[in-house]
Predict the structure.
Amino acid sequence: MYLPSHFRVTDPALAQALIQEQPLASLVTTDAEGLPFVTHLPLRLDRVGEGGTLHLLGHLARANPQWQHLQARPRAVVTFLGPQAYMSPQVYPDLQRVPTWNYVALHATVQTTLVHGGEDKDRLLKCLIADHEPAYADQWRSLAESYTTAMLAGIVGLELAATDWQLKVKVNQHRAEAREALRTACVAGSEQERALVAWMDRVMASGT
């Protein structure tokens, strides 16, 4: 993505925070014609490996042809979008300014391993359940084996190793003359604007 140096954030802890707070990702592959194919799906940050590689877990419906794209071409792109909001030029002390849009986004290049084994997919699903609804784990275990086997057969698990990532935090942190006014406006604004304030603080604290 287009990433000016003043919006580039290199702190891996902030990349991990975005994934955990906004787990709905866009998985981008290319189809047989070379056109982009996108699936929106929740991904779990499973662990951080050597060299800062982010290991992600998720799954696709077997009816979704994207797993076949990944089987043929295992390298793909995953994106996560954090809070975002319009920014008025009224935050500046002078009039020769224009509006913009502030946002937080993470793009990662991933290497994919497909998971087909029933037991492996069951373990993967239990990780996702633990993240989003731990109480559902008992219900899943209590379901008839014939039902769970059929449900597991209907998905393909994904293990994604993010070998390279870019985190863009665009909160106009390079415009010191507007920083306090922007913060004040965001604190009094929408839920998205208030969430951007937290990212302003994180960027300033990280020094990246």
Observations:
- The CA atoms of residues 88 and 160 lie 38 Å apart.
